[in-house]
Amino acid sequence: MSLSNYDMSPVKELIKVLNGGVEFYKEAKEELSDNTLATIFNKMITEKTRAISELQTYVLIDEGEIEDDSDLVVTMREKYTKLLTVVRADKEHTYLDQLEEVEDRVLDKLSAAMEASLPEPCNIALSQIQIRMQACHDEMKALQQASA
Fold first, then answer.
1. Is residue 2 part of a domain?
2. The domain spanning residue 97 has which CATH number?
């Protein structure tokens, strides 16, 4: 399978956001000592890791190496959240707000990848990933609203 005729950069950008999301959820899980949230965060980490694994196949075939960078915006959001939790009393709500924003970014990058001209197997994988990432987003949105 040759992907060299395709621009895989939208997929790589999505992987970067997913990588950043995994890191951010891991940090949030450590910072918040709520078992219910830890279970939800573990599910988010699992779904994002699964999506990364599925998408890395296409990047690896195309470029010969995996994408392991994180998205700068997600990294900055993680640092911003750390700062906010020092200033604000409601650490849980602050994390949930920022994690929901990460979910928004995942959906934005996913949408961009789905609009790109990519090989059909990659498009099918993106469609399946979209369903799971939309569910992750919806769950974080509900948590965010419940914590307000």
1. no
2. 1.20.1260.10
The boundaries of the domain holding residue 88 are: 9-63+72-147
d(CA 71, CA 142): 24
SS3 62: helix
| Position with higher pLDDT, 97 vs 83 | 97
Between CA 105 and CA 98 the distance in angstroms is 11
Based on the structure, what is the number of domains in the chain?
1
Dump pLDDT digits (tens) for 97-124. 889 999 999 999 999 999 999 999 999 9
Does residue 4 lie in a domain region?
Answer: no
Exposure string of 51-76, with b = 16+ CB inside 10 Å and e = fewer, is bbeebbebbebbeeeebeebbeebbe
The pTM score is 0.84
Q: Is residue 3 part of a domain?
A: no
**pLDDT for 79:** 64
Q: Is 89 exposed, middle or buried (0-12, 13-18, 19+ CB in 10 A)?
A: exposed
